[in-house]
């Protein structure tokens, strides 16, 4: 039973046992609510729900977390359309056309488009995951320590330069993340780095407390600062989408799905970049460019399809390389490790069926999301009206529980507080969080593989540059770093450019 | 990237603050702090044992990886500092916006309440009680500014929300999901 169809069937059968639908129903709902509430992001949702899954089996736990992830990315569009405030950063592009549609009295239609786009996007991305992840996973088996070192470094460089904002600050954030991951005992000599005689520090900084701090505590602080949420559009037309929207914009849907999945698969870029890129590509190719930003159905469809296709895309490198494609995927990966599912190249040998189980989970989550998207309109409106002065302290309590629960150490709560304050300050100083998180997650991978590679080669650095895949990854990393140096690529490529013909 | 930035500038979002440019002087101060931090870490990494006798190579010493990261951070901090100077960090700066002070006080209150709760109350009081007190205090303080009209009602609601949160978290996490609470 190794053909993909029967493995997918087995994946569904495995996932659907033991009340899976019940878990999917509540988890997608929580995801949508978390995503819809401004200030609560998908990353925070997945991190907090990880706590709830400790006592669950790995199968149910992953289903719950995948459902929260899928739901939260979709939920962000609700507040983007109704409040002009993206519920998660991923939905920022949806405000451009979603809110103008709502102001024209078409809030229901906008939500229908967003539901349809999001549903198709996740479905498209999941299809790509099912098609390519298994074969890519087998290819990744050729990756040794040398290659994995470069994969980790490439992830930091690409996330630093492309995750939005200032590439220089992106790199600094990435390396700060890598440095945070070095605290505690290292693998080769069990030497406690930066422990200063403290046994808690010698154990290292827990991934989950740091992530809960950076995305939970920092978000609570951030959302308590600005002005309160504005009034919601009260007019509501039908949310049932038209078939014409699919037939008319099928090119946009396919393009956005492809772009979203590809950007998701790039380490650390995430849903926000996927949505912006899909939106920009749709605008460039559209016959109705002038409508973009004024309530274009095509624009909203592109943004929603792109961000939702990014979710399965971001899971592809988690499963094949143990490198997360986005910040929520980083937390999902941490949860996989907590539950003893070791993502990465070895997955193709130890548990090849897991990839198909994830595909089944994504499809179940996507279907539940579609149902909620069409049914839950009014209740989600009420959720958006919860005052943040009442919501945020509850979120903070949940953060505290989340940080403590994994190892039951009060030290982890201090780690969460510290990470939250540092994360908040770094955000204020315009450091993007995606490379920081990727650095924290990949730090261990980079550290272990560099030291393992050097031990294997007896201290010889040449295999890092001479093995074929290593050399390609090294070249890609250097190219990605040079690409972000302002003006450098233009100067390097200038001799190869053709001069325009005179006249 | 230019194609992505174009629509980004038009969007109004709570994240728009993240994209507004910072005065170059802030970058200069950040660069100085990062450089000091990077150099400090390099010094710590340098002083770590090398275990050359066990591994036959100094390249697997515990200080190599953090030393490398700290060196990169220090170099990037120097680039950040030089760029800030080129952008006018040493010239006179304009005064900060007036709303920044209100924001700062709200932030400070949220940070202090959070630290007192997670750092002091949790572990000393029963978790449900600490959480109830925190949620009540947080809600009451941030809703105080809404004015005296309806304040007693808001305070009662805050107390009920606090108590409800404390008890619900205990019930859901400890009893249903079998998670240990502080």
TrEMBL record, chain B:
Statement: the UniProt record of this protein carries the keyword Cell wall biogenesis/degradation: no
Keyword annotations of the record: Membrane, Transmembrane, Transmembrane helix
InterPro entries: DUF1468
Domain DUF1468: from-to ranges: 29-182
Sequence intervals crossing the membrane: 28-46, 66-85, 128-146, 158-178
Protein name: DUF1468 domain-containing protein
Species per Swiss-Prot/TrEMBL record: Falsiroseomonas bella
